[in-house]
Amino acid sequence: MKPKSPTACLFFFLISAHAQLLEDSNNGDGVFKIEENEETQIKRSDFPSGFLFGAATSAYQVEGAYLEDAKSLSNWDVFCHTVGCGENGENGDIADDHYHMFLRDIELMHSLGIQAYRFSISWARILPSIYPILPSLN
Q1: Quick check: helix, strand or coil at residue 11?
Q2: Which of 17, 21, 31, 34 has the fewest CB atoms within 10 Å of its CB?
């Protein structure tokens, strides 16, 4: 009988360890519960000097201002206006309205001590109508 490869042994070990972990964390009603013994206290001083605390957003999730200022439709705009995309017909037309409230949002981030902010802007707002710019594909 040929011995099993180390990869196969590792695979079966991980599967059995994962199954045991799930079994141990199941409290009997099909709900998994992770118990914490202590509340973890994290302080800024726990991080290295120069570490930047930041936040990030994604255009469709926060921007809002659907079709304002000559913005055209994005893939998300079209998809999220189809039946079944969101619960109760929800979509990102308003979202968090960051487009209109960005100054307030930046003030809020500053008050929280956030030092870096990565945001995105919808390409449909930057290039609202790309078709006249592209050469004919025929």
Answers
A1: helix
A2: 34
For residue 130, the one-letter residue type is I
pLDDT digits (tens, 9 = 90+) for 49-102: 999 999 999 999 999 999 999 899 998 999 999 988 888 888 999 999 999 999
C-alpha span between 84 and 88 (Å, rounded):
8
SS3 54: strand
pTM over 0.70: no
Neighbours of 81 (CB within 10 A): 15
Q: Is 12 in a helix, a strand, or coil?
A: helix
Report d(CA 17, CA 14) in Å as an integer.
Answer: 5
